[in-house]
Amino acid sequence: MRNRVLLVEDEKNIARFIELELQHENFDVTHVLSGRVGLDMAKREEFDVILLDVMLPELNGIEVCRRIRMFSQIPILLITARDAIMDRVAGLDAGADDYIVKPFAIEELLARIRSVLRRTSGMDEASTRLVYKDITVDTAAHLVEVNQEIVELTKTEYDLLVYLIQQKNRVVSRDLILQNVWGYLADIETNVVDVYIRHLRSKLPRKVASYIETVRGVGYVMRE
Question: For residues 30 and 52, is the Cβ–Cβ distance under 8 A?
Answer without folding.
Answer: no
